[in-house]
Design a protein that fits this description.
By secondary structure, this protein is an alpha/beta fold. It has 7 helices and 6 strands. The protein has one domain (18-181): Rossmann fold. The protein has helices at residues 2-15, 33-54, 83-91, 102-107, 146-156, 172-178, 195-220; strands at residues 19-27, 59-65, 69-73, 120-128, 160-167, 185-188. The chain has a 6-stranded mixed beta sheet. α6 (172-178) links the parallel β5 (160-167) and β6 (185-188). The longest helix has 26 residues, at 195-220. It starts with a helix and ends with a helix. The relative contact order is 0.19.
Length: 222
């Protein structure tokens, strides 16, 4: 059995860092404030700039939410636009204010067209002050709380790693509900180009290894 896992590690080394799909779910509500929103926007800008320098195969999407939610940038944006177009689009995202409908923002992750490949890392990064005060009425049947919506996203596709990044005086309990687990909860008060990236790649590599090793072991033990 040890040999099987060593084989999985070798395969992981070759394929687990090929492509990356990242979707940022950005809080634009009144509680986060315009100053912190600028911090978040700069964070998304710098992260995207760094990520796309690695390879042209990486993709970035943005969901913006406050009282409601909308897809600001779809994952296929770079199919017909350049990296500079995307960076300019990020800079042009406008702070809206309003209520904090985090469930509605998270719910839109269900509509994302992720690449369905074992060699694609699928990351959802929720940037919020963690003070949700609305329930989603457009996500499945009935009204959905933050907890039920987050749980549905986790159950729907466990290969998507969800990180919750708290801004300013974020509510840790809500971040823990959103995130895949406590190791994907972070806090930012200024831009650190390594903080989010290191956490995301570590978690996604682990998820990739888990998926590959499970498939290989299942196949070889038939």
């Amino acid at each position: 059995m040890l040999g099987f896992y060593l084989l999985a590690i070798c395969v992981c080394y070759l394929v687990c860092r090929v492509n990356t799909d990242v979707v940022f779910v950005v809080d634009s509500s009144g509680s986060i404030g315009s100053t912190n929103f600028q911090l978040v926007r700069d964070y998304v800008y710098n992260y995207t700039d760094n990520l796309l320098d690695r390879t042209e195969n990486n993709r970035v999407g943005i969901i913006l939410y406050s009282s409601g939610a909308r897809v600001e940038v779809s994952l296929d944006y770079l199919n017909n636009n350049t990296k500079d177009d995307l960076l300019n689009r990020i800079q042009a995202v406008i702070y809206t204010g309003g209520a904090t409908n985090t469930p509605e923002g998270i719910c839109l992750l269900k509509t994302v067209k992720w690449r369905d490949s074992i060699s694609t890392l699928r990351l959802a990064v929720v940037l919020t002050d963690g003070r949700s005060n609305r329930e989603s009425r457009n996500c499945g049947n009935g009204t959905n709380t933050l907890q039920t919506t987050a749980q549905e996203i986790h159950n729907r596709n466990p290969q998507i790693v969800v990180s919750a990044v708290g801004v300013a005086n974020a509510v840790a309990a809500e971040l823990q509900i959103i995130a895949t687990d406590n190791s994907t909860v972070d806090f930012i008060r200024e831009f650190d180009p390594n903080l989010l990236e290191q956490n995301q790649y570590y978690r996604s590599y682990s998820a990739c290894f888990k998926g590959i090793s499970t498939n290989i072991v299942s196949y070889l033990t038939l």
